[in-house]
Amino acid sequence: MFERHPAQISQQVPEVPVSPGNVDSAFTLSIPSVEWQTVTLWSVIHGLFAALTYWHAALPIWLLPLLGAPVVAWHASYQHEAIHGHPTRIGWLNTLLAGLPLILWVPFGIYRDSHLKHHRNEYLTDPIEDPESFYVTPEAWSRFSEPRRMVYRAVNTLAGRLVLGPLFVASLFLWREAWDFSRGKGRLKDWTGHAIGLAVLAVWIVGVCDMPLWLYVICFAYPGTGVLLLRSFAEHHAAPEAVDRTAIVEAEAPLALLFLNNNLHVAHHASPGVPWYALPRYEVLRRRLTGRREERVYRGYRDVARRWLFRPKEHPAHPHY
Known about the structure:
The protein is an all-alpha fold. The chain has helices at 23-26, 36-54, 63-83, 91-98, 108-118, 138-143, 146-154, 158-163, 165-182, 188-208, 213-232, 253-258, 265-270, 279-289, 301-308; strands spanning 248-249, 297-298.
């Protein structure tokens, strides 16, 4: 795991492949107690969000989702940074800065805990143990009705993931949360904090900006979730060995910034604590030190779309479960 401590990047990079576990020992970075790059990022995201919502009536409605969705997705990318300990060393402050629920449907605390569980790499893609898996067990698949199978097949295409995916993931998440509450296992504290965040957001959107909630949902929250699902669509896949289950998308510049370099997903899983602004350097060193081992590398999201826009990426039933 990447640790916060002062040092410098090693200048002596071996010419022969070494174990991937040695990458962190060669890559060290001084991270201050306050990462001002990320604080500035927070200011830009929230400033853009405030401006777009406040002056939404001055924009044509067709333009709102083209601007609103990336801002909401960018905010979710910032939340991902906060989960991994940025931009400060104060946990409650990071949570406060990231807690505004622009995406509406998931409490930050539950997202944080489920995502950290997702980082148990030995369980990646497991339909039971990995909370971010899109796979189901073969046994569950055998019990599905044909309409349900059609939905799962659809969201395994990129077009289906973008169009139906937000409704699919939100519905599945909320159903599971309702089930937990029915068994006395609900996360009441997280949902209470989420309700407070939703109230603050509603006061701003409806009370200050005079924007109907339905307009916010269709122009900001729903397509913003879709943009996030674009990023995650190809970043994991079923494989017998855990080390082979993560891929890299060499994103074009605007999307790399929008996703805060999390498209370099092998590097992120190798060392989750590396901040977004240092991840490209870490990835360069990682590839040199590991001898560019065989990995799934996609040449941008156009490459992903070319492969799977209307074709399922994989079967929904996990092939190695």
